[in-house]
Specification:
55% of the residues lie in helices and 10% in strands. The protein is an alpha+beta fold. It has a 5-stranded mixed sheet with strand order 1-4-3-2-5. Strand 3, helix 9 and strand 4 form a beta-alpha-beta unit. The protein is elongated, with a radius of gyration of 27 Å.
């Protein structure tokens, strides 16, 4: 092991006795694998700036929401009341986002080896679920009012909706200034954006009621907003669910990554390949890489890390690199070694497909 890699292992506490020719390395996306910051994780907006913009949006929403509840009751408008209820979920989503940011900023310690970075994914999932649950309630109320419509004060609805559009444009602009690559911030943004669409629909409904007297327009506008809420809520729940289930990032094909790794001139096989997402924008990868007997394990590892960071944006990598041996040539080929109940596999429960040079099954 070179002095460079030995120093890395000492610094990170990797004082294990690895077999000769084996390199185990955690890379954090720096040009040489070292350094003080995670350059690959910068999104151009500081956590402090995120919190400031979210707090401004929260103030706008809470102030207007209180006024809208009163006006909605006076005007007997479901569209206004639904908008106010939606604004309540907007406020909750922003509060959750602010709490999640605080938790995610805490350093890793104890049993939480990633820290609390996934708090933001919990927040995003909560945002998605509240959108879906609220959509169900509003859909029920809208259908009920289509059947038995109450009298609606169209003029009051129109004026309030126009004011709501202005407030939500301001709130959406504030959140757009934060880091929307975070699924957490994106969840809050989707809440605000849907609320903006809701106010536009409510304004149109108010105008129709004023000009034509067609009071069912209020409920129809609510149903349009429900459809938008379901779309946004499903997207948030789906994306956060993928992260909780340790799925690979949507833009990364693990089989393609495995084939790309084994295409290296000195690599003969790659197995136990795992790709998952720690939190928004932070993908991680681990794999066992077998190198030809004359290959340089450390050089291969550094080249693979560089390739993963450059081509796939994966900077959290843990690669166990070994020289290939006869005992390892049958990894993943069940039943090739007589008397071996594991079928010649490197473990009783192999994790995923084996990647080799040339055509192979995934």
């Amino acid at each position: 092991m070179g002095a460079h890699d030995h120093a890395h292992d000492q610094a990170h506490g990797h004082g294990h006795d690895h077999a000769p020719g084996q390199a185990v390395r955690h890379a954090d996306g720096h040009a040489d694998g070292h350094g003080g910051g995670h350059a690959g994780h910068s999104h151009g907006v500081s956590a402090g700036a995120d919190r400031r913009w979210l707090a401004i949006a929260l103030s706008l929403i809470c102030g207007f929401m209180a006024v809208e509840v009163v006006i909605g009751i006076v005007a007997q408008s479901l569209a206004l009341i639904s908008d106010a209820a939606h604004m309540l979920t907007d406020a909750v989503s922003i509060v959750l986002a602010l709490i999640a940011m605080r938790l995610a900023a805490r350093p890793a310690r104890g049993g939480f080896t990633y820290g609390l970075k996934r708090a933001e994914i919990l927040s995003a999932q909560a945002n998605g679920l509240t959108l879906l649950l609220l959509a169900v309630w509003l859909a029920y109320e809208a259908v009920r009012r289509l059947i038995d419509p109450p009298e609606v004060e169209g003029g009051l609805v129109l004026v309030t909706a126009l004011a709501g559009i202005a407030v939500n444009i301001g709130a959406a602009w504030c959140i757009s200034k934060a880091n929307r690559t975070s699924l957490n911030v994106e969840g809050a943004y989707q809440h605000i954006l849907n609320d903006l669409f809701a106010f536009i629909g409510t304004a149109v409904a108010g105008l129709i009621v004023v000009t034509t007297g067609f009071v069912q327009a209020d409920a129809i506008a609510t149903l349009v907003v429900v459809a938008l809420m379901v779309k946004a809520g499903y997207g948030l729940v789906h994306e956060s669910g993928r992260i909780f289930l340790e799925a690979a990032p949507a833009h990364v094909d693990p089989d393609a990554v495995g084939d790309r790794l084994v295409a290296h001139r000195q690599v003969t096989e790659v197995h136990d390949l795992h790709i998952w997402t720690i939190t928004s924008g932070e993908a991680a990868l681990s794999a066992h890489v077998l190198v030809e007997p004359a290959g340089d394990c450390h050089a291969v590892r550094r080249e693979l890390e560089r390739m993963l960071g450059t081509e796939y944006g994966i900077t959290h990598t843990t690669l166990q690199v070994d020289h290939v041996q006869d005992a390892l040539l049958s990894v993943g080929r069940a039943g090739e070694r007589a008397g071996d109940q594991s079928g010649g596999r490197h473990c009783a429960d192999p994790h995923g497909p084996v990647h080799r040079e040339g055509p192979h099954h995934h």
